[in-house]
């Protein structure tokens, strides 16, 4: 059974940084794509980015490029989302998800989801 558990969320000031972790079990990172998504209060869920089975990354929104970086540690079966220069509008619940489809399929290509971790950007 595929399982994903996020951690690392919390309260951070604007301009600050956080690193979120997604620990996966039940599959190997070599076989699945892992995506990061977020849902802000009152808004629909949106894609942040994705790392595919080869380790290549894709970022879904231009405003996150350069601020957010996805990486993975196969030995630790963990995927990270490093977030820098955080802004008020980055406040959201962040989810990781795993899927066997292409990262280009976004959330529609994801089969299993974690429960999310809350990030609050506030002064």
What attributes characterize this protein structure?
single chain; mainly beta; 7-stranded mixed β-sheet; 11 strands
Short description:
With 123 residues, the protein is mainly beta. It contains no helices and 11 strands.
Could you describe the 3D structure shown?
The protein is 0% helix and 48% strand. With 123 residues, the protein is mainly β. Strands 2, 4, 5, 6, 9, 10 and 11 form a 7-stranded mixed sheet that branches. The protein has a 4-stranded antiparallel sheet with strand order 1-3-8-7, with no helix packed on it.
Q: What's the arrangement of secondary structure elements?
A:
Layout: E1 3-7, E2 10-12, E3 18-25, E4 33-39, E5 46-51, E6 57-59, E7 68-73, E8 78-83, E9 92-99, E10 112-113, E11 117-121
Number of helical regions? 0
Low-confidence stretches: none
Classify the helix fraction into a percent range. Answer: under 10%
Approximately how much beta-strand content do the residues carry?
over 45%
- Secondary structure category: mainly beta
The first-to-last residue Cα distance is: 40 Å
Number of strand segments? 11
Q: What's the main sheet like?
A: 7 strands, mixed
User: What string, H for helix and E for strand, traces the elements in order?
Assistant: EEEEEEEEEEE
* Mean of all residue-level pLDDT scores: 94
Cα gyration radius (Å):
13 Å
Quaternary structure of the protein: single chain
Gross geometry:
globular
């Amino acid at each position: 059974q595929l399982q994903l558990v996020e951690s690392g969320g919390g309260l951070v000031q604007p301009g600050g940084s956080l690193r979120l972790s997604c620990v996966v079990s039940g599959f190997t990172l070599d076989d699945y794509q892992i995506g990061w998504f977020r849902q802000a209060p009152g808004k629909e869920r949106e894609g942040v980015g994705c790392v595919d089975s080869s380790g290549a990354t894709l970022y879904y929104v231009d405003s996150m490029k350069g601020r957010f970086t996805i990486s993975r540690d196969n030995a630790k079966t963990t995927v990270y989302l490093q977030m820098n220069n955080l802004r008020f509008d980055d406040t959201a619940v962040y989810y990781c998800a795993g899927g066997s489809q292409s990262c280009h399929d976004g959330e529609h290509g994801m089969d299993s989801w974690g429960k999310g971790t809350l990030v609050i950007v506030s002064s």
